[in-house]
## 1
Amino acid sequence: MVTAAEVSVYCRAMDYCHLHNLVDPAGAGAERRYGIRVTLPSGDTLRKILGDDWETLHWYPSEVDRDSAFEQMAIRHGYYRQSDTPSQTLEKIVR
């Protein structure tokens, strides 16, 4: 049987154990005021699956970090087939 203390330790460890996590452990407590809102353009067929109100937000501690991430997100990645036409709408935001 797993105790509450063991679950607590396990959950804290899981916050950063995977390389694909978006939060750098060194800056996990930093205030993040600069963001990128990702939505789908109207008429995008993926809206039929995700819904018309789908969005995801990425937050960064500085405007420079956000702008750098924005440029990377705007690049067409090599994972797509030549026949694919990926679409997303990126918007810089501040809270």
Note: Residues 63-74 form the longest helix (12 residues).
## 2
Amino acid sequence: MKKQSLKDNLLYQRKLKGLTQDELAEKTTVGVRTIQRIEKGEVQPHLQTIKLLAVGLDVEVMN
């Protein structure tokens, strides 16, 4: 089974939870622009950013 990329996983989890990028940004203190760039695959976020997004989405960070 192929491991899902971070951008695909973020997009999937955000939509699964019914959140817009703006709503996720408000829940996590991660900027909307940063969320957009991660979902487009333009940036590799810092671990701290990933952890904030995971908490906002109520998912576990797996290595």
Note: The mean pLDDT is 93.
